[in-house]
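User: Here's a chain of 461 residues. Predict its fold as tokens.
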Amino acid sequence: MLENFKSVYIIGIGGISMSALAYFLHARGIKILGSDISFNSEIEKLVKDNIIDYKQGYAPEFVKICDAVLYTAAVSQDNSDILLAEKLGKSILSRAEVLGELSKNKKTISIAGTHGKTTTTGLISAMLLANGLNPNIHIGGILKNINSNVNVSESDILVTEACEYKDSFLSLKNYISIVLNIKPDHLDYFKNIDNEFVSFQKFVDNTDDNGFVIINNDDKLSRLLKTHCKKITFAINNYADLQAKDIKIDNKAHISFNLHLKGENLGNVELPCYGYHNIYNVLACAAVAVALSIPFDKFKCGIKSFKGIARRFEIIYKEKNTLIVHDYAHHPDEIKATLSLCRSLGYKKLVAIFQPHTFSRTRDLYNQFLNCFDQADEVCFLPIYPAREKPIKGITSYKLSKDINNKINDLKDKNCKLKKAKYLNNFVKCKDYIEKYCENDVLFAILGAGDIVELAYNLKK
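Assistant: Prediction complete.
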């Protein structure tokens, strides 16, 4: 399909995935045209590298001259450029379809799951890079090992995140399919967890007969998935092919464990990143090493080379006893894990700054959001980041803060450290609040998947 196109117009090219696809398509000799509603660092890099012709906003002139239009799930179907493309009879492709085409004829390692996809993709990519395999990489964040979200090479290996939203990951042709976990999310599309599970089963079914399926045996839904090819399981608590045992956490929150393969102790592993939850991501990476016959010592050297990913527990500011970290956490489970990690660092006070991501997720997981900030002393809410959505009546950050305060007053739970929730209606007020509030022995956790990154990096400056 892609070989038939000489030029492609990408709508929403500033997105982390779409900008990566631009590099892959350009490497195939395809001329890239792109637009977005705003200019960002990803677009700046594409322009600097002479990858695209760019226009901000709608670009009907690009529609008229291109062979195909590529769009992301965040773009509405009533977008005027898409409507024009339909009228002109242009080929119109989703991001998922193009990534699926790129996964053909490759040993594609696809990383799926509600949480942990980007970090695990980064760990696997770093391990393969360190061992001279130079894989193609498509990742939903900036991998600091390559200072990019993309690596295009001649390798027959492609490492990619597999996003479940709107069943995008079902377009992928997998050699290794990884399922980290299955939790309720994107319920605006799936409606319920049963439908979500069915989609993950279809994702696993797309694995090559000679390939591997890698499953988290501690996740109750993931371990129910049926497989038709070789399966490698990993776990901390339950029996699995790969197990983390004798887990140790020192007073600086560094984690190590002994890695067991089918009962045999292969040796000690040190996590290259903070967070107990990252043990699972490292175990998934170890399973890939087993599938590709990468020896244990080379696996260890590989993950040791991992330099981290922007917006994943990224230290923004550290001065005296004040620490500011930014994390992409936007699901209640991710928020709990991040705040638990923050608490383990030993600061006297923990303040969470959170921008909810989409109205539908806030609505569908409302009760979970009411209970996921208990490890913080205080939480400040910013307005909901809408992404692709229109407001939903009665679903606001202000209501969330009010209901949390009511919960604190009513329950007086001894295990709940949270003392108050506050609503701040813009970044300026939030920045002023942080600067005025800033005192010795306080950790600020800036959380969210939306444009809260602007607040974080503004504080970094």
